[in-house]
Each structure stands twice: as C-alpha cells, then as structure tokens.
Amino acid sequence: MSSIGTAAYPGGTNTYVKNHEATGSLVTSFSRNPSDFPLARYTQIRPVTQDAGYYLRITAENAARIVGMKLNEFVWPDGADRPRRNAGTEKFAFVDYRTQRYDFDFTLGYKAENQASWNIRDTEAAFHAQQAMTGRTVAVQQMLQNTANWDASHVIAAAAVPGNTGSWEVSTTTRTDIKRTINYGREIIHQHTLGTVKKKDLLLVMNPVTARKIGESQELVDYMKGSPEARNEIRGDRAEKYSDFGVPDTLYGVEICVEDAVVVTSPRGASVPVFEYAMQDGIVLMMARPGGLVSKAGSGPSFSTAMVLAYEEMTVEDRNDVDNRRIEGHVVDDYAPALTAPVSGFYFTDVLE
Q1: Can you tell me whether residue 216 is helix, strand or coil?
Q2: How many C-beta atoms surround the C-beta of residue 20 within 10 A?
Q3: What is the pLDDT of residues 63-122, one digit of tens each?
Q4: What one-character DSSP code corresponds to residue 323?
Q5: In degrees, to the nearest 5, what angle opens at C-alpha 225 toward C-alphas 223 and 230?
Q6: Which of 68, 114, 283, 346 is in Cβ range 3.0-4.6 Å of 185 for a Cys bridge?
Q7: Rounded Cα distance, 310 and 336, in Å
Q8: CA atoms in the 13 A half-sphere facing the CB of 222
Q9: How far apart are CA 5 and CA 170, in angstroms?
C-alpha cells in the first residue's frame, strides 16, 4: 500500500500538484539548427549518384606555360611545317571516393511519448540532426587538418613565412606577421590556380580560441582602431558577425569564418562532460568556395578547396515498432569529405604560441 505522505493544514504552497504547465510548458534546450553550422560556408556539397566513384583532378600549369618567357617554340614561319612538339596536353588523375553511411538513432516507448508534456519526438529528432551535422563537421575537419592531404607548398608554419618574425598571436603593427601570412597564401593560390581563385572567393577558417587570441594581438588591435567599427568595438556593441570572438568579418580583404562547432567527446552519463571544438587551436585554413552551396553535376570545373560528396543528405525517418510499442527515430547521412582542389587553399600552422 502506498503512503499518502504527512498530513498538513492547507497553505499557500501545498494545495496544488506541481506540473509542467506552470511555466507554460517552457522547454530549455541548446539544440542548434543544422543550417546554422559554419561548415556550409567553407565547403561545397556535390550530390553523387553512386556511393563509390571518381572525380577528375586536372593540373593547370600547361594552360599558362611559356618556358623561359620565350615564344620561340610556337613560331610558325610562312611556308614551313606547323610546329609539332608532340606536347600541349595536361596531366590528369582520377581520384576515387567512397561515401560512408551513418545512422544517428533514438528510441522512445509509447508511454514515454504519450505522457510527455512536450513534443519529445520532434525534440529528439532535432538533437540527432544536430548530432549528424556535428559528425559531418568532425569528418571534414579531420580531413582538412591532416597535412598529408595537402600539397607541400600549401602548408607552412606562420613563423616560416618569408619575412615573418613569429606567430600571429604576438604580432604587432610593426611586424605585420598576420598581414604578410595572408598575402603570402593569397599570392601562391593566385599563381597555382592561374589567377582563377581571387580574393573574393577566399575565407580564413579558424576556431573560436584562435580567433580570440589573434584578436588580442597588437596587430589586430591596431587594425581595429583604424576600422569604421572602432567606436562600436570600444562600446562593446559591434554589429559584425564575429565580434564576440574579437575579430572582424573581413581581415586584409579576406572574409573570416569562425568554425565554432562544439563536440562532446565524453560518453553519455559521464560525471564531467568534455567539450571541445571540432577544429583544433592554432591553425588557420585559407579556403576557396566560389559559387553556391550546392555544386551541380555537369557545371564545369570546380575550384572549391573542399567538398562533401553526398549520396544521401540527412534523411529523417520514423519507424513505428508496434510489436514492441516503441518509436525508432533515425537521421541518416551518407557522404565522403574530399579535398578536391588543394591548390585553391592554404594550411597555416602554429599561428598561436
């Protein structure tokens, strides 16, 4: 027999049963909209029709090759045979890919769903859509942060840039190590893409820790002093997107993208959850993503540094398991991250002390 509790006289705090409706069914949650992830700013999505295949990577040097700045080999005197060099073509390579399918699932019993005072199924679906997008960000960042995937001439430590004294974090207006590094990367990308990738196509991608620390450097402090946002910076109400991280939206003519996706790396139930950023501290990626978010098949050459080759794009599914009286929810994602045009990007390491 259950206890009825201790009898008491009626008062102002004991004549009702506490319930969720007291707050108007308030739900406190930190679920993030998948479309709000920065990943969409620096990668392009290419739908694929098979989960394994090839993409074609063609080198571009021959399109601008004039050996020794001399045109002698192209001269065709009147009456002479055409020049025949048995050359003039360019190297190419078929690069293979294979997508991986992921399933982010949850299970709700009928009783749990029917008695919940909030829309628990939609809430869980939103959580798992965010989890799927977080997983995609992790996969892309792991590919990008592997220096072995990049051309050797497109990876450099900040202090190794010709003319630099050290890292971005301790740069000053006199040293201008940040400006020199950005210009160095832009120039090499411009040369190696034969002028195709321009400043407007580029983004500087970094995590919040890196953004905050370089934002505190003397070079950036002085840079902000001379910007139209200087007054608002002092007042603390700068309207720029990344003002919370202490950096401007555009730095020396290149847009900034702060990759702020957070990953919980500890297992469920851990006494102390562990939070990390998907992108590691101390690196900056200069990346090209010209064009729209989705790259259409047959649309010509792509100059985007990185792509997500998507066989299936975040399908949300419900399965009604009548026999076991439960609902199975699933978010399915099937893709392969690919560094499709590494010469259109640059990997700067050791930008922090």
Answers
A1: coil
A2: 12
A3: 888 889 999 888 999 999 998 877 777 888 899 999 999 999 999 999 999 998 878 888
A4: T
A5: 120
A6: 346
A7: 7
A8: 12
A9: 66
Task: Please give the average per-residue pLDDT across 180-192, as a whole number.
Answer: 97
Quickly count: other Cβ atoms within 10 Å of residue 179's Cβ: 17
* Residue 45 near residue 293, CB atoms below 8 Å: yes
Q: Which residue has the higher pLDDT, 177 or 300?
A: 177
The answer to pTM > 0.90 is no
User: φ and ψ at 331, to 5 degrees?
Assistant: -120, 115
For tokens 């202490």, the residue is 246
Residue type (1 letter), 9: Y
Quote the DSSP letter at residue 291.
S
- 235-243, Cβ contacts within 8 angstroms, sequence gap of 24 or more: 242/211
Structure tokens at 32: 């993030």
| C-alpha closest to that of 264 among 273, 255, 254 | 273
Residue 231: predicted pLDDT: 47
Ranges of H-type helices in the chain = 39-42, 110-115, 120-144, 177-192, 208-215, 218-225, 230-235
Residue written as token pair 């990007």: 345
Residue 300, SS3 per DSSP: coil
Backbone phi and psi for residue 30, each to the nearest 5 degrees, phi listed first: -120, 30
**169 within 8 A of 310, measured Cβ to Cβ:** no
Question: Phi then psi for 49, rounded to 5 degrees?
Answer: -95, -10
Q: Where are the beta strands (DSSP E) in the chain?
A: 44-47, 52-58, 92-98, 100-109, 155-157, 202-206, 250-251, 254-258, 262-264, 275-277, 284-288, 307-321, 326-338, 346-349
**Beta strands 346-349 and 284-288, pairing class:** antiparallel
Given a contact cutoff of 8 angstroms between Cβ atoms, the answer to whether 347 and 154 are in contact is yes
